[in-house]
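This week, work through this protein record:
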Amino acid sequence: MRFPRVLPALAASLLLAVSVSARAQSTDQRLGDVEKKLDAALAELERLKLGGAASDTARSPVSRFGFAPGASRVYDIGGGTSVGGYGEMLFEAPDGEREDGAPSRMRPRADLLRAVFYVGHKFTPELLFNSEIEFEHSGIRDEAEALVDPLTGEGTAELTGEVVMEFGYLDWQARPWLGVRAGKLLVPMGLVNEQHEPPVFPGARRPDSERLIIPSTWAANGTGLYGATVSGLEWRAYIVEGLDARHFSVSRAVREGRQAGSQALFTHPAITARVDWKGTVGLTVGVSGYTGDSWQEARPAGVNLSARVTLADVHADWRVRGLQLRGLWAKGTIGDADALSNELGLTAGSRLGESFFGGYAEVVYDVAPLAWPGTEWGMAPYVRAETYDTQDGVSGAVDPAGTERRILTFGVAVKPHPQVVLKLDREARHSGADVETGRWNVALGWLF
């Protein structure tokens, strides 16, 4: 008799439980949907905060805080380890004759110039490590090649390959507008030194002005600050190891004076800084500079020798639709160049000049969207006009005219993907001594 009385109560309880469960599931589902939308919104805000010009930074990395796209990967991850890299191969076919009609005695070459790997780790949202490990010329073999400059007779022994830590530093972003870096840093000068991945710059070869006047790739041990404002102003300022004047030369200016962070003498450190304006979409305009005493040894007795190197540049890069205009002008001075030449025992045409300079202008235009609307490929003809002099104002000697160079480079870059490029170009080269040799270049480059 009790069972019929309990049954309605039990049925009511079951209906109530089902209703509560349904409402709970409905609530959980709604909460799950809200959480998904919130996560998507936060991800979009993070993308915009980081500069979000690309919709998929994992597939198409973009530049962050002065670094090239591949080197910037660690800044885009939420935490943990990031891996990226780039590489380039170069085929050079020099002309059989120099400007003056003499045999060039140069042979075609194919070289795996670089295979580079970026490894970074983000410890916290504010603290990270970033590094670039570079294998040059297909690695190291136990031999070297002697290279002799035809003008000065200067010779160097160039290793067949090399493995270097191009940079490796810790980065603490104390505020959104202020960060601190310490380690082996890229000197923040020019357009190429910090942004030297092959798909980024026009030309099969880097401009000579950014190899010999600004000695890219130029890295040094040091520390400093960097920052950016919402209005588009970016800046970096470091104190770094100085150059070593014992290795300066007529044909390569201060390039061989780079200590590259290896057992570097820190007798006289240097200061380097850069300011860029990026407040207009597609436009970068800036200046950068470096100054420091390059004599790292004890002062010679009775000689006032400081050999201070001061180098400055102005640069610009403007991109609108398929057009890109780039340009740079750099000038450097060597203090006490005459006394330095005496101390190094340099005579006649090997004496160092008081200054050196170089610059170039480039025009690039991607014609692929016009020829094939909707294509994802790129095809960009380019022209670069360049002039430089590694030694100017030589004291106590005739100024060597052969250090003056003029180069006209024209070619085309084909990109089947934004991160892969094939470049073909011609270098028409001229020197004051008529000893230059023109060449054809083919380069293959990639980044990831």
